[in-house]
Here is the input.
Amino acid sequence: MKIALDAMGGDFAPQAAVDGAVLAAEKLAGKAQIVLIGQEDAVRPLLEKHGPAAASLILVSASQIIEMGEHPAKAYQQKQDSSIAVGYRMLHAGEVEAFCSAGNTGAMLVGAMFSVKPVPGVLRPAIANFVPKLAGGFGIMLDVGANADCKPEMLEQFGELGSLYAQYVLGIAQPKVGLMNLGEEEGKGTAIMQAAHQLLKVNPHLHFIGNIEGRDLFNAKADVIVCDGYTGNVLLKMAESVYEIMAEKNMHDPFFDNFNYEAIGGSPILGINDNAIIGHGVSTPQAICNMLMQGFQMADSGISDQIKSTFKS
Here is the structure.
């Protein structure tokens, strides 16, 4: 198994990418090989500094970089030898089983849509994120940014995508699916939320438990939290700020430490034909390492095949 990493993506690339890849290679201990994609003259010296620890890493040359401020679609189209474009080509060709990047989020989404493409039947792929639970473990929330406006049918599909991920990657036998709303009652929310509720309610593939509220994010009510990308992104950034405020005040707690983006490393794009993960722009080596480990878990679980077979039927 090979897991690819955009070595040029992120505010601290390529140093953080190389350091994180070395950490992940030690953890994987031969179960998978890490492929770094980037500018050879920038990455090779950093690998050489790690000596034998970096011996198992493969470097694939890519001469261009899609910068954070560039227009995603235009840059992806014009920079076909960028680390993101090369990574997606390798993923599409089956040369790697997962592709991870802390680079331009929009370009990662464009690459997912136009290279490996959405699974037939999926209206819109979603970006998922992980929610720590007070009772232990994690739930999954989607969408957290790919689709600000959602039709009811899209929200229903997010429930299915999240439920499959929770089952096959997080190991939750019968994931409970909740719709994030402004009240628990069935008739609450906008017309879109009310319609989504009715679709989720009758979906035979889901264990739908109804509407949940913001206060239910971290309790055991739902393992899968369904919301549009606007709501999900606000919730995600708020949770990240809680960790930052506590760290600033020198307050530490094992539960709140899970709010740190480094603990997870990245957000998977669900509903595409392969495994792709978007990391935080400020990813540290630890965050890169955890993103790569997540890529390995996704590939090892066969989640993309499970999604394909579910939507085919």
In short: The mean pLDDT is 95. The first strand starts at residue 2 and ends at 6. The radius of gyration is 19 Å. The CA atoms of residues 187 and 265 lie 37 Å apart.
